[in-house]
Amino acid sequence: RSRLSSNVSHGGGGKSRRLPSCIIIGVRKCGTRALLEFLSLHPDIVTADEEMHFFNNDDRYRQGLEWYRQRMPPSRSHQITIEKTPGYFISSMAPSRVHRMNSSVKLIVLLRHPTVRTVSDYTQIYFNKLGKNESLDAFEDLVLDRESKAVNLRYKAVQISIYHHYFRRWLDIFPRQQIHVVDGDHLILDPVSEIRSIEDFLGVPHHIDYSILYFNSTRGFYCMRLNATYERCLGASKGRKHPDIDQTVIRKLNRFFVPHNKQLFNMLHVQFPWT
Ligand code: A3P
């Protein structure tokens, strides 16, 4: 009997490292870190702090499931282990690899208004480059084709926001009921109600409420109250101010995404408040 066949290794204190039974697969810049951190406050949930990039990285995947399991946090038998790597969503290999690990794994996907996500993605790359003393072209120059002024389909931040392209691959492999879709824009405004549906999806009691999460007006986001004296917000790289963008470009992007959003809503049987 291989050690892996039990999916568990026994450590001290009745805890073991287990493969995740739920994965937050994306989408990048839709609130994946906030959701993971909020869920980690639930007594029946344990979360891997780091993004594993296991199913989307050939070198890591070759290390095998045992390598992956060793990197999961210790948990008790009733607890659910959750990992998040937003890169899984756009990986062509990840759906079948995740399925091979556990065909009944629960998947969570956060989505945001695609134009907002595109701007957020640009903002992240802008700041990453700034940190390395590099510069980045203006958003308007990247997102529109220089010649035709049409939306630039070669720009990665635009591609990722065409959610249905990637969702199709997951739905080819996993039944719809196994994928919970979160409105990332709503998660910012009312995290508890989004988390309630996730608690139901995971089959754990409702625990996260507004005594645990509180609105921090300095940050402009919800933060965590860990105990009577200790509060924690997400790091400065989350909730950055977005650049001011030419409104005609924003309208062009919004129009561009409309048919893609329609396809997505039909595919998922959901409706988001996006134009
Ligand atoms: P912005 O920085 O563009 O505002 P991810 O963790 O997937 O990279 O997503 C980052 C986004 O999470 C942020 O995008 C921010 O809007 C959103 N977010 C949601 N809830 C948040 C919270 N409570 N604190 C900070 N950011 C939050």
Automatic annotation (TrEMBL):
One function term, GO molecular function aspect: [heparan sulfate]-glucosamine 3-sulfotransferase activity
Residues annotated as binding 3'-phosphoadenylyl sulfate are K29, C30, G31, T32, R33, R112, S120, Y222, K238, G239, R240, K241, H242
Disulfide linkage:
C223-C233
Q: Which residues does UniProt mark as catalytic?
A: K29 (for sulfotransferase activity)
Highest taxon above the source species: Eukaryota
Q: Does the record's keyword annotation contain Disulfide bond?
A: yes
Q: Which UniProt keywords apply?
A: Disulfide bond, Glycoprotein, Transferase
Tell me the ranges covered by the Sulfotransferase domain, including all copies.
Answer: 21-259
Please report the name of this protein according to its UniProt entry. Answer: Sulfotransferase domain-containing protein
Instruction: Tell me the classification of the organism that encodes this protein.
Output: Eukaryota, Metazoa, Spiralia, Lophotrochozoa, Mollusca
